Amino acid sequence: PFNPEEGKREISSIQYEDIGGLERELQLVREMIELPLRHPELFEKLGIKPPKGVLFYGPPGTGKTLIAKAVANEVDAHFSTLSGPEIMSKFYGDSEKALRDKFHDAEENAPSIIFIDEIDAIAPKREDVQGEVERRIVAQLLALMDGLAGRGQVVVIAATNLPNSIDPALRRGGRFDREIEIGIPDKKGRLEIFQVHTRGVPLAKDVDIAALAETTFGFVGADIALLVKEAAMNAIRKIIPLIDINKQIPAEVIEQLRITKNDFDTA
Ligand code: ATP
C-alpha cells in the first residue's frame, strides 16, 4: 500500500547541550554509535564490528530517550521510535510486520537509529510466562537484528527500567551486546539539569539553582523539568490579578516577569 511517510527522514532536534549531567554515559554512547557511523574505516581496519544494538537501562525520566535523540541528531541520522507496549497493543496481530517495516524504513533512510522504549514489554524472559505472541515478536526482532549489515549504519537502541527482565537471547553478541546504565543524577547532575531547564528562563536574583540542586535529592531529569515548569506557572499565576485578561498584556509586565525563589518553594 501507498505510504506517504515512506522515504521521509525524521531528524530529532535534541542536542547534547540539552542534556544535563550524564557526561560519562554520553561519552560511551558517542564512542559506540557516533564514532562507527562517522569513521567506519577505523573499525574495518582493526576488524571489529560496531554494535548493532545498545541497551540503556535505568529508572524512568533519567534521559534515555533524550540521549538517543541527541546522538541521532548529532550524526544526522533518521530517528525512528517504537515502544514495547505499543508493539504489543496497537499492532496486535501484526506486530511482526510493524517491526519489519520499521527496520526496512531505517535501512532505506540510513544512517538511522531505531529507539525501542520499554523493550521489556515485548521481550520478557522466557521463564516469565512468555506467550506465543511475545515469542514470535522476540524471534522477529532477533532475526531483524541478525540481518542488519553490522556496519553501524543502523543502530537499535532499546531502553528499559528492568534490565534483568528481558529475554537473555536479546543480549547475546551481535544483538544488544552493549549496555549503558542511565542512573539517578547526583547533586552535580541535578545542578546541570537545572541549568539546562532554566536556560533562557528569566530568574529573579533570589533564585539559587545550586541550593535547589542540593535539596532535590532523588529527583530525576523529568522531575526537575516538571519543577521548573510548575514554578513558571506560579510566576504566571501571580501576575494574573494584576492584568486584564481580555486585553493585551503591557510590554513592561512581560519584561518584568521572573520566576522567584518563592515560585520554586510552592511548586
Ligand atoms: P522513560 O523510561 O520514562 O522513557 P527516559 O529515561 O527515556 O524515561 P526522557 O524521556 O529522556 O526519560 O526524559 C523525560 C524528560 O525529562 C525529558 O524530555 C527532559 O525534559 C527531562 N530530562 C530527563 N533527563 C534529563 C537530563 N539528563 N537532562 C535534561 N533533561 C532531562
From TrEMBL:
The keyword Nucleotide-binding applies. One of its GO terms (cellular component) is cytoplasm. GO terms for molecular function: ATP binding; ATP hydrolysis activity. Residues 50-186 form the AAA+ ATPase domain. Keywords: ATP-binding, Hydrolase, Nucleotide-binding, Repeat. Coiled coil: none annotated. Belongs to the AAA ATPase family. CDC48 subfamily. This is AAA family ATPase, CDC48 subfamily. It comes from Methanoregula boonei (strain DSM 21154 / JCM 14090 / 6A8).
